Amino acid sequence: MRTRGLLAVLLILATLTGCAQSVDPIERLGKKAAERVRPHGPDAGPPHRRWGLTAPLAPAPTRPSRPSGPLSGSPGGTALPPVVDHVPTRDRVVFLTYDDGAERDPRFVDMVRDLRLPVTMFLTDSVVGPGYGHFARLRAVGAGLQNHTLDHAALRGLPYTGQRAEICGQQEKLHARFGVRPRLFRPPYGTYDTTTLRAAADCGITAVVLWRAAMGPADLTYTRGTHRLRPGDIIAVDPDESLGPTLRERTTRLLRRIQEQGLTVARLEDYG
Predict the structure, then answer these.
(1) Residue 208, SS3 per DSSP
(2) What does the alpha-carbon distance between residue 154 and residue 50 come to, in Å, rounded to a whole number?
(3) Same domain, 77 and 190
């Protein structure tokens, strides 16, 4: 009897040991690897659903329609650069722009990469500060980096030397950081005068870029014309996250509106 009891105990222990060793292979990979193999939550599914869209973004035209080349001035020449808030085009596209460089959420880089989202960032050196690495990552996934002055000063009314220092100074900063000299410039607060245009031209700027629509905490607002997106509109996305939704959430809301109106997003730099 004792022998039978001992054998029974040994059999039970062997069974339990075998069960303990039958671990899910995915569990053996560790938590991070398991998440890659078995995705769940907000990161599951195709990229457009991951970022809150019901359908993928339509691709922008491979050969942009740009009948008048509104962003291509003559840098260093006698002509002043044009001021644009809208690009004349037959393509059903709009352009997404972001100012300052205060928001540095790494998930926004993921969003731009996953959606292959063409965006243009107008950077201010004193705001970006030590965060240029974030914008290097954005540039690596396709974002355009352009000029928004050194210190975000309101330029209108300042003397030529001061305006030139603000614009040319940021040209040099961005060239030193990324090896490129921007050709597009957005004046802080959207204010400028003829002196701004002269200084911008002398710094190699080919166009001064404003916006016809802006995406704020709640919805789109418009600076002029019909209160509906039109092909060729330049849109400024408010970067101030203290006033409500994150930049990613605002961008998702905006992309839904763009899709609802039968439009898509194109790269602003491709239309100059």
Answers:
(1) strand
(2) 39
(3) yes
The residues, ordered by sequence, that sit 6+ positions from 61 with a Cβ below 8 Å of its Cβ are 91, 93, 266
Residues 92 and 219 in one domain: yes
The CA distance from 105 to 241, in Å, is: 11
**111 with 9, same domain?**
no
Same domain, yes or no, for 7 and 138?
Answer: no
102/148 Cα distance (integer angstroms)? 12
Report the alpha-carbon distance of residue 235 to residue 211 in Å, rounded. Answer: 5
Cβ–Cβ under 8 Å, residues 268 and 184 = yes
Amino acid letter for position 52: G
Cα–Cα dist 234/222, whole Å: 11
Give the number of domains in the chain.
2
User: Are residue 25 and residue 149 in the same domain, yes or no?
Assistant: no
Quote the CA–CA distance of 124 and 246 in Å, as a whole number.
Answer: 20
CA torsion sign for 214, 218, 224, 229 is positive
Please give the structure tokens belonging to residue 4.
């039978």
Q: Indicate whether 241 and 178 sit together in one domain.
A: yes
27 and 101 share a domain? no
Of 4-18, 107-121, 212-226, which range is least confident?
4-18
Tokens representing 66?
A: 């740009």
Residues above pLDDT 90, as percent of the chain: 70
User: pTM score, two decimals?
Assistant: 0.82
pLDDT digits (tens, 9 = 90+) for 177-228: 999 999 999 999 999 999 999 999 999 999 999 999 999 988 999 999 999 9
pLDDT tens digit sequence for 221-253: 999 999 999 999 999 998 887 778 999 999 999
